[in-house]
Design brief:
The chain contains 13 helices and 14 strands. By secondary structure, it is of the alpha/beta class. The strands form 4 sheets. The protein has a 6-stranded mixed sheet, with helices on both faces. It has a 3-stranded mixed sheet with strand order 9-7-12, with helices on one face. The chain has 2 domains: 12-218 and 307-319, Alkaline Phosphatase, subunit A, CATH 3.40.720; 219-300, no CATH class.
Length: 320
Amino acid sequence: MSDPDADRPVMSHHLLKKKVLPLLKDNSPLYFVLIDNLRYDQWKVMQEIVNDYFRTIEEDSYYSILPTATSYARNAIFSGMNPADMAKYHADIWVDDSGENEDALNKHEEEFLSRFLKKNRKQTTFSYHKILNSHHGKNLVDNFSNLQNNDLNAVVFNFVDMLSHARTDMQMIKELAPDESAYRSITKSWLQHSSLLEFLKKIADVKGRVVITTDHGMIRVKNAKRIIGDRNVNTNLRFKQGKNLNLDDKKGGVIEVRKPENYGLPKPNVSTSYFFTTDDFFFAYPNNYNYYVSHYKDTFQHGGVSLEEMIIPFVYLEAR
């Protein structure tokens, strides 16, 4: 992360420059569709539907940065920078992850993208859309013709992420998606009846080109790790950022980052550190420990270190 000459795979902050900008062409708009919190296995079941309208030109994977959380990984995608550089060079729009909700942390994606394109391609025209509900999706589809004059149209669909949060909080969703197989099935069913599929059909109708990708995946967590921190520690269950972080049990399951700069992460305070869970662990506080364990065990979470969270799809398609 800290060595510019390191031999490494494409990561979040490389994605636009290395994988997307080379696809931009004159008089041929590119649609960049980012489905938040999409695992590779979920993409494979969605692909069965998408293949009816598109042929695959490239199917690849890339690596999410740490934390594998929207507030870091998606901002890194649109800015083309790691979080430490975002905090340094875009201090006016970077929001530190200290107890903020994720919506507040991702308010400036369009501006990050605008600045990235100005820095790397002076003449690129683009649009940016975030689809949070069916009304937003309908508006996107209804106004599709307005997008065809842009070089790049970036669209973020949030349904899969909302589904994972709903599964944590609603017993009904847990019953519908008790395991990974059922979760994939729900994702496929959603696509079949979604504005995303209507949008993809519109692109196919004009013989368009589309990239489908995500910012990070997720993993089903099963084992708790007790962590101690002050009241300003962030709320994510798979990683913690803050001062004076400590563990009750140091027997595996956690990566401790005491020098955030080595991971391309900002350091708001001298004593700031980051703790990442690995495998199927999640963090819980000593206070109300049993409640946290019973409530969050067997839920899908992201932010930590696992293949499911970090190795994620990048697919380039052309209409049939």
